[in-house]
């Protein structure tokens, strides 16, 4: 945090989607317009060379944040700044655009099946005019393939000749081909088998160290996130519930949702032990609950939680949006087993 | 549970897929059994044959896949060679199936109540009135609030977690003796996943139902299964009690697989990884299929294929545990 200009800074970022039915149907059914608040006012910064992870269940808005962070969506409100510059402005400049890239979840859908791997990887090199000659381009593609643990000869093949893990390596090579500094990774390992996931996570860590990359890492898997993050944001229904340094989040989770989430994860040491499920389900982001969105499932909820939406407030080295934590009522909820064993 | 007669026995099962370029062997010499009330977890990477084993048991192999060798016995009776109609009666009545995606299991045009009632009137000696009453009871049992009102809802009116519960109710309502659950919680969020697993475990225990649980989520296996079978390239690499396989695996592949799971309770600098990838069915190496990736490989592994042998706490298909012939 010593660096005064973070790689990415989001301030009160929001993205709403209009999910109303067509005008005539709406008129006939006398319905209001319906707005889905996928992301509803979140702020975070990512210092250079570090990894911020966003975790949460499906529908919490984490992938929308990923897309907002590289400009695939424009914000409804709030701002994203890329190295101090407004993201929309940075996106309009090729030499800035080149510095940010994205890796997607599904390596089967994100590679053009009719292109040879070498052309897939070379496309950003072309688009940004990064090389002067054909020979230089070939060398660069070979270098990138080697960097992600594939053979330079693999460039001649087509994507279908590779397994899921190898395809994700190709996606990473393509993302790295424009020499980016900031990578947004949206669930890069969730479509992969666990043994392959370990390969990709190790590769991503190595590349970060070697190239000084900054990551925004999106995942629903807390164990994965613990291995790769410097800081972690826990999202619930379009808002951040808690934002904390990685180890601190696991040693002392503060928000009741974070604790419930950790308690709900199956763990290898849990043979024969019953998990304590979080009751209920994630409510619809179209009609979120009043006050704190987590209150219908929260064991610590009281009148204030139903009425008033909590803002992010500092608690130790974390930021937490919870009235119970602020008022010191959170001791009523036990720490999850993971945090207890770590302490 | 070894003193109880097994409910399901799979013996030397071999599944082949004839293709233009020759026959692919998807499952080769797979054997295991499941006792009543027991949960057998089946794990492995995608393409290892986990789902294929489940499909073979419920008689729903995708053509041109076919059982080329071996037997499947349910309660001592062979079910692998039955006609389609006979097998259809067994599915639902004796074997319940739960698949990963609840949307493809439920018929979107019928209410959940109708689907449940139809399953029960087909397989149980009860009338429509009784079936409807029981359908409400089942929905309550799987934890659907206001079941009496929601019974007339269509699948799309339920959320993902609720739908998967409906699928579970559907699989259980004819009170089968065996449940084949293929990735039942993979499409669900952790909080919902925990609810569904707790439910499955409780029902299996209360009704004495045997369950084959196919998943790649080792956490789910650890807390649900009694025994685990680890599959690799169409064969069982190791089988044994869940605690042993998860914590002290004997087969180098199972050990590598378990080690590559990111730990939740600590941060490690570098995760243990298995280099390389599982071979394709068309290019399974000679000898032990795992030998090119195995850190403990020796000469014999490259030539001879190991069968399951006693490895102390578990059974492993690995020459390291062969006491007859020494290494090399």
From TrEMBL, chain B:
The primary location reported for this protein is: membrane
Q: How does it sit in the membrane?
A: Peripheral membrane protein
Alphabetized PROSITE patterns for the sequence: ABC_TRANSPORTER_1, ABC_TRANSPORTER_2
> GO molecular function, one example?
ATP hydrolysis activity
Q: Which GO terms describe its cellular component?
A: plasma membrane
InterPro entries, alphabetically?
AAA+_ATPase (IPR003593), ABC_Ni/Peptide_Import (IPR050388), ABC_transporter-like_ATP-bd (IPR003439), ABC_transporter-like_CS (IPR017871), Oligopep_ABC_C (IPR013563), P-loop_NTPase (IPR027417)
Q: Where does the UniProt annotation locate this protein? A: Cell inner membrane
Q: Which UniProt keywords apply?
A: ATP-binding, Cell membrane, Membrane, Nucleotide-binding, Transport
In the record, biological process GO terms are: peptide transport; transmembrane transport
Q: Which CDD domains match?
A: ABC_NikE_OppD_transporters
Q: Gene3D superfamilies recorded for this chain?
A: P-loop containing nucleotide triphosphate hydrolases
Question: What name does the UniProt record give this protein?
Answer: ABC transporter ATP-binding protein
- Organism source for this protein? Neoroseomonas marina
């Amino acid at each position: 945090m010593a660096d005064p200009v973070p790689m990415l800074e989001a301030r009160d970022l929001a993205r709403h989607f209009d999910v109303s039915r067509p005008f005539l149907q709406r008129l006939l059914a006398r319905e209001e317009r319906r707005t889905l608040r996928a992301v509803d006012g979140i702020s975070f910064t990512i210092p250079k060379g570090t990894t911020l992870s966003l975790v949460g269940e499906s529908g919490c808005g984490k992938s929308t944040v990923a897309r907002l962070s590289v400009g695939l969506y424009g914000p409804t409100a709030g701002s994203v700044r890329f190295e101090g510059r407004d993201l929309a402005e940075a996106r309009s400049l090729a030499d800035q655009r080149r510095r940010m890239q994205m890796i997607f979840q599904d390596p089967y859908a994100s590679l053009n099946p009719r292109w040879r791997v070498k052309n897939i990887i070379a496309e950003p090199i072309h688009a940004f005019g990064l090389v002067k000659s054909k020979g230089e381009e070939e060398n660069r593609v070979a270098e990138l393939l080697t960097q992600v643990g594939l053979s330079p000869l693999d460039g001649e093949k087509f994507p279908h000749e590779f397994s899921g893990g190898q395809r994700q390596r190709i996606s990473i090579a393509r993302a790295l081909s424009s020499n980016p500094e900031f990578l947004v990774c949206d669930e890069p390992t969730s479509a992969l088998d666990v043994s392959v996931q370990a390969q990709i996570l190790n590769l991503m860590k190595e590349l970060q160290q070697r190239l000084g990359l900054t990551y925004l890492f999106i995942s629903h898997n807390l164990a994965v996130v613990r291995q790769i993050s410097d800081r972690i944001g826990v999202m619930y229904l379009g808002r951040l519930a808690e934002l904390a340094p990685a180890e601190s989040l696991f040693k002392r989770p503060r928000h009741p949702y974070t604790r419930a989430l950790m308690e709900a994860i199956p763990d290898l040491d849990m043979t024969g032990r019953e998990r304590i499920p979080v009751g209920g389900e994630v409510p619809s982001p179209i009609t979120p609950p009043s006050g704190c969105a987590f209150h219908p499932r929260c064991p610590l909820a009281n009148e204030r939680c139903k009425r008033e939406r909590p803002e992010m407030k500092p608690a130790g080295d974390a930021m937490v949006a919870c009235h119970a934590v602020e008022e010191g009522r959170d001791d009523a909820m036990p720490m999850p087993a993971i945090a207890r064993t770590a302490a | 549970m070894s003193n109880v007669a097994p409910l399901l026995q799979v013996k030397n099962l071999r599944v082949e897929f004839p293709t233009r370029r020759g026959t692919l062997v998807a499952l080769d010499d797979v054997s295991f059994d499941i006792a009543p009330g027991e949960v057998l977890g089946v794990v492995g990477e995608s393409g290892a044959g986990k789902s294929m084993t489940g499909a073979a048991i419920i008689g729903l192999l995708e053509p041109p896949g076919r059982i080329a060798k071996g037997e499947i016995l349910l309660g001592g009776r062979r079910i692998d060679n039955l006609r389609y109609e006979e097998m259809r009666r067994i599915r639902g009545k004796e074997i319940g199936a739960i698949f990963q995606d609840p949307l493809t299991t439920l018929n979107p045009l019928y209410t959940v109540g109708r689907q449940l009632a139809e399953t029960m009137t087909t397989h149980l000696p009860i009338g429509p009135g009784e079936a409807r009453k029981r359908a409400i009871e089942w929905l309550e049992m799987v934890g659907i609030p206001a079941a009496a009102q929601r019974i007339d809802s269509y699948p799309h009116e339920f959320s993902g977690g609720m739908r998967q519960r409906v699928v579970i109710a559907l699989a259980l309502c004819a009170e089968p003796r065996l449940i084949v659950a293929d990735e039942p919680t993979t499409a669900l969020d952790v909080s919902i996943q925990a609810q569904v697993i707790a439910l499955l475990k409780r029902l299996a225990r209360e009704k004495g139902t045997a369950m084959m649980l196919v998943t790649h989520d080792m956490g789910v296996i650890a807390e649900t299964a009694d025994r685990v079978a680890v599959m690799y390239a169409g064969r069982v690499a190791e089988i044994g009690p869940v605690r042993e396989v998860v914590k002290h695996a004997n087969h180098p592949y199972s050990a590598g697989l378990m080690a590559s799971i990111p730990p939740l309770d600590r941060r490690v600098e570098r995760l243990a990884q298995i280099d390389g990838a599982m071979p394709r069915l068309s290019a399974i190496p000679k000898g032990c299929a795992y030998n090119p990736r195995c850190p403990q490989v020796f000469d014999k592994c490259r030539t001879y294929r190991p069968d399951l042998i006693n490895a102390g706490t578990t059974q492993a298909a690995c020459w390291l545990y062969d006491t007859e012939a020494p290494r090399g």
